[in-house]
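User: Teach me something about this protein's shape.
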Amino acid sequence: MAKTFDLDAFEDDLDDAIRRGREAFTGKYRKQLNDLAGLARSDIDAIAPGITNLKKYDELISVVKEASRANLAQAELKRQIEKLGGIAVKIAKRVPSLAALLG
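Assistant: First, the predicted structure itself:
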């Protein structure tokens, strides 16, 4: 049996995602998030071209957004970025405000 699409639930989820995004861009790591969002595709591809880098970039943005929204400590943000793996760390180091955090 096919699951029916619940438009109300979708709109609730969307409203929540928009609210969380707004909170992230006004939170503790808003500069890092803005700098990360400003990376060019060529900057990401310079690490090693391919879809894997774009996936890691997306994961990195998600981590920084949530860290900003939650006002996460710098040490914990660093740990979360490092948990994403080497590609994410290399991408983060292309952003001066994140590179300083990663040391």
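Now, about its shape. Helices lie at 7-24, 30-37, 41-45, 51-70, 74-83, 86-92, 96-102. The mean pLDDT is 91. If you'd like, I can walk through any region in more detail.
User: That's plenty for now, thanks!
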